[in-house]
Amino acid sequence: MSLSVSARFARRELRGGLRGFRIFLACLALGVAAIAGVGSVRSAIQAGLADQGAVLLGGDAQAEFTYRFADEDERAWLESVSTAVSEVTDFRSMVVVDPEGAAERALTQVKSVDDAYPLTGSVTLEPSMPLAEALAGDGAVMAPILANRLGLAPGDSFRLGSKDFTLSALLTVEPDNAGGGFDLGPRTMVRTEALQGTGLLEPGSLFETEYRMTLPPGTDLDTLEDEAEDRFRDTGLRWRDARNGAPGVARFVERLGAFLVLVGLSGLAVGGIGVSAAVRSYLTRKTSVIATLRTLGASRATIFQTYFIQIGVLSLLGIALGLILGAAIPLLFAPMITASLPIPAIFALHPGPLVEAAIYGVLTALLFTLWPLARTEDVRAATLFRDAMEGARALPAPRYLLGTAVLAVLLIGTAMVFSGDPWLTSWTAGGILGSLVILSLAALGIRWLARRATPAARGRPILRWALGAIGGPREGASSVVLSLGLGLAVLAAVGQIDGNLRNAISRDLPEVAPSYFFVDIQRDQMPGYLDRLENDPAVSRIDSAPMLRGVITQINGVSATEVAGEHWVIRGDRGITYAATPGENTTITAGEFWPEDYDGPPQISFAQEEADEIGLKLGDEITVNILGRDITATITSFREVDFSTAGIGFVMTMNPGALQGAPHTFISTVYAEPEAEAQILRDLAQEFPNITAIRVADAIDRVSELLEGIAGAVRWGAAATLLTGFLVLIGAAAAGEQSRTFEAAVLKTLGASRARILRSFALRAALLGAAAGVVALAAGILGGWAVSAFIMDTTYAVVWSSAFGIIVGGVLATLLAGLAFAWRPISARPAQVLRARE
User: Fold this and answer.
1) Measured between alpha carbons, how far is residue 318 from residues 70, 315, 324, 478, 724 in Å?
2) Rounded mean pLDDT of 743-753?
3) Range 108-130 average pLDDT
4) Where are the transmembrane segments (predicted)?
């Protein structure tokens, strides 16, 4: 028979409506909608970043220097290629207020500007006034959160370094703040000229200078960037333009979006189980129809094509519904999402994520329907009797197995391409496949255990009925364990990862972290600084090191980005120090540290882990630009550097002769008793007002806030997966309603009461839910450990509160779904049911 005949059969089958396919459509639509929705929000943010790139950057292009201002030649070239230039400095400092002699201090991120600022966008102040008026003389503006913390109002005075400033207004909108990345302190803005006499911009102080430019219309940004890099290759200049106005934000959005899409794929996999179960249940009901068609001469190919077309049409309908939801929901909630974002977003119909979600949906539908569709070959013309599909062989023909494998590889490959992170995608795919294997084996084990335990339940009919149903072929234990189990496994893994991150921050770090990080300590201030701390019995430890910042420009004479790509060590400037000896707690993992009196060519000791990631080896040459000067050093050793302690750690350490002559300051960490921290800060700030103190506990709180936002987004993605699993669970319960109705009728005929039958149904659901929860918990713990150990490189411990919640959730979910479809079976009249089965 031809394909047209199969299409005609399929069309007639579809006339029966969507009965039995509502869960099928819901699972597919929900999975596609989750991926399309996440992609649409990500595209909206990316479109906003691209559209407002110049505003976020503060100009059409920017040249950035570390530790210094542009020299005359650099400034002249910047002015020659632009129509306007604005000079901005950015650094951390301490704000000090002294009401009635009781000084209060807070960390702030200071931005000093010139008359040209802002080149793009506009600053909004409260009360409303021009920025030039607010910053006139020694005027300043400040973020409301900082002013409220210090009890400041417009007209009040505060101190930065050694100088007093007057708060003119509160800074409510700072157009170029989103591109600034992670800040430990709220913003304070002053004029650069007003910083003279503060002691904050001394040689070696940690500050960055940014030159924002507006460019003539039609400027070729690629050509201009190449010219800037060629002209100032050896000066440490870093170039950015409006095409990537907030690179840190863009990278974060891209990576978080990709990760959430992978979580969405987990939900789609759960939905795929529901799709597979729905197709299998549907084809079981169609056994007699298939056998009749075979009797009338229909070939296996015709039967397969008939139901393939039918399921294909329904799959496309489900995918279309998912795309509509995925596109509409972000548009519907666009005002709310935009209001909660600190960056611009342009919500519109973005076709890219919709196409991506559609491809995922098609591949998932094909992958999870091919196997059950292959079972149509097992129905022969002679099998015109009930339950023929139940006796089908476990595995389909080899060609279907091959097709399933090809589709799985294609789905994973597509995810790798779309996510842009093959490594993370591989881990996610491996976790999903591993969980499915574990859950499938667990389902078989549960049925086997139920069958073995049934005889032992003699004398307890309710338990015996429940175990007998679980161990039988009709209850759908596999569907329950797979669907609910995978959803709970994803949620368990997220819970374990989230819990371990919280523990690492709130429990582990305070045990080893310093009280304060002090920066910008001038060399001549070190004796007095150490004298104050070393004579304090509340101080248990002081670590200090010289501090410079430099940009790795070349590796073995080749551009660093060509060798290391976008590795974080290469991206931007990095801290660098010098030392004559390795230090007491330093572990040399390879090579040898230079002698204490070494005075030869520059040598460098590199962090082992980062060196391995970049691909460095002993003898390689690293060129670092420090204060506009290139220093090329040979790697002579690798060190173990642990950044998780929140102490001092440098990726690069050089011999003293290479760096001692450069202007620099010192950094220091202080470990002290909590009750002594405030006094230490007061004494040091009073004697050395230019020193900036970063309280580590506050920094940890700031990181915790960011992690909470990320964890919240991931939990929402996991919740969508769990919702899909619950829908599949409802589908499994609905599919088994007919068999439970017959079972209830038989039990009633034998004298069982409705209450006992209902308790048996409830016990059956609870046992399956508990089993699914325990297996999911095992898979989630394994997944959480893998992510913590191999991706986040953190210690791992099982979070039992989350684990207990997963098991309880599994029991409640199956109970709700089971009881929802138990009332009709126990209410049916036995005579009608048994007569219908004749």
Assistant:
1) 59, 5, 10, 24, 14
2) 79
3) 90
4) 256-283, 304-337, 357-376, 397-418, 424-450, 765-791, 797-823
First to last CA, the chain: 35
Decide if 593 contacts 603 (C-beta within 8 A): no
Kindly tell me the burial class for residue 117, based on how many C-beta atoms sit within 10 Å of its own C-beta (0-12, 13-18, 19 or more).
buried
DSSP state, 234?
Answer: T
Positive or negative torsion for Cα 579, 581, 586, 587: positive
State whether the Cα torsion 645-647-651-657 is positive or negative: negative
CA 570 to chain centroid, in Å, comes to: 22
DSSP secondary structure string for all residues of 155-204: T-EEEETTEEEEEEEEEEE-TT-GGG---SS-EEEEEGGGGTTSSSS-TT
- The residues near 64 (Cβ < 8 Å, ≥ 6 apart) are 208, 209, 210, 211, 237, 238, 239, 240
Half-sphere exposure of 729 (CA within 13 A, CB side): 32
> What gap in Å lies between CA 492 and CA 455, rounded to an integer?
34
Reference 715, options 484, 492, 504; nearest CA is 492
Q: What is the pLDDT of residues 193-203, one digit of tens each?
A: 999 888 888 77
Could you list the beta-strand ranges (E) of 281-376. Answer: none
pLDDT in tens, 2-19: 677 778 877 877 776 666
Q: How far apart are CA 59 and CA 245, in angstroms?
A: 9
Asked if 784 and 796 touch (Cβ cutoff 8 Å), the reply is: yes
Pinpoint the alpha helices (H) of 638-695. 656-659, 677-687
Residues 725, 483: contact at Cβ < 8 Å? Answer: yes
Who has greater pLDDT, 233 or 88?
88
Contacts of residue 256, Cβ cutoff 8 Å, sequence gap at least 6: 710, 713
Q: Look at residue 619 and give its three-state secondary structure.
A: coil
* 333-340, Cβ contacts within 8 angstroms, sequence gap of 24 or more: 334/44, 337/41, 337/44
Beta-strand relationship, 84-97 and 157-160? antiparallel
Dihedral of CA atoms 638, 643, 649, 655 in degrees, nearest 10, equals 10
Please say whether the beta carbons of 61 and 215 come within 8 A: yes
Task: Measure the CA–CA gap between 269 and 349, rounded to whole angstroms.
Answer: 26
Confidence label for 247 from pLDDT (cuts 50, 70 and 90):
low
Please, are residues 802 and 496 in contact by the beta-carbon 8 Å criterion?
yes
Assign 128 to helix, strand or coil: coil
Rounded CA separation 278/739 (Å): 16
Tell me the one-letter amino acid at 796.
Y
Q: How far is CA 232 from CA 61, 159, 432, 659, in A?
A: 15, 37, 49, 21
Q: What are phi and psi of 246, to 5 degrees?
A: -135, 75
DSSP states along 558-613: EEHHHHHTT-TTTSS-EEEEE-SS--TT-EEEEE-PPPTT--SS-EEEEEHHHHHH
Q: Global pTM?
A: 0.70
* For the chain, domain boundaries: 1-53+253-420, 61-218, 434-513+697-838, 539-672
Q: How confident is the model at residue 389 (pLDDT cuts 50, 70, 90)?
A: very low
Distance CA 52, CA 39 (A): 20
* DSSP classification of residue 218: T
HSE-up of residue 273 (Cα within 13 Å, Cβ side): 34
DSSP for 443-475? HHHHHHHHHHHTGGGTT-HHHHHHHHHHHSSSS
Contacts with 494 (C-beta within 8 Å, 6 or more apart), sequence order: 263, 711, 714, 715, 718
Residue type, 292: T
C-alpha 624/C-alpha 615 separation (Å) is 17
